[in-house]
Amino acid sequence: MEEVSVGPFSFEETCFLCECYTLSGFNLIPAEKDNLWQLTHKLTNGLPYYTSKVFNILQTEFDKNITIGKIFTLLTKISLITAIIIRHLIN
Q1: Nearest residue to 69 via CA among 91, 39, 26
Q2: Residue ranges of the chain with pLDDT lower than 70?
Q3: How far is residue 33's CA from residue 56's CA, in Å, rounded to a whole number?
Q4: What is the pTM of this model?
Q5: For residue 44, which of 5, 13, 19 has the smallest C-alpha distance?
Q6: Residues 55-61: contacts with CB within 8 Å, 24+ apart?
Q7: CA-CA distance, 64 to 79, in Å (whole number)?
Q8: 3 state SS of 65
Q9: CB of 72 within 8 A of CB of 44?
């Protein structure tokens, strides 16, 4: 299998990816959807890898319920894990 480098997604591409994940049974308040996708795009810098991680954590730790507070919580977790890995690699 060949590696492919994917750059940051546009906001529209992030929205499409979020919509695809949502179709697999995630729960959210429809009126908040635009704000949730904007927040996801902003906090992941449009990187599809991190968008995928957001939905993986929402699925496993938050019972597929999407809220603004949960997105902030899980991105904090991702940041902490990344910092620990980087510190381990440096030492």
Answers
A1: 39
A2: none
A3: 18
A4: 0.77
A5: 13
A6: 55/18, 55/21, 55/26, 58/26, 59/26
A7: 20
A8: strand
A9: no
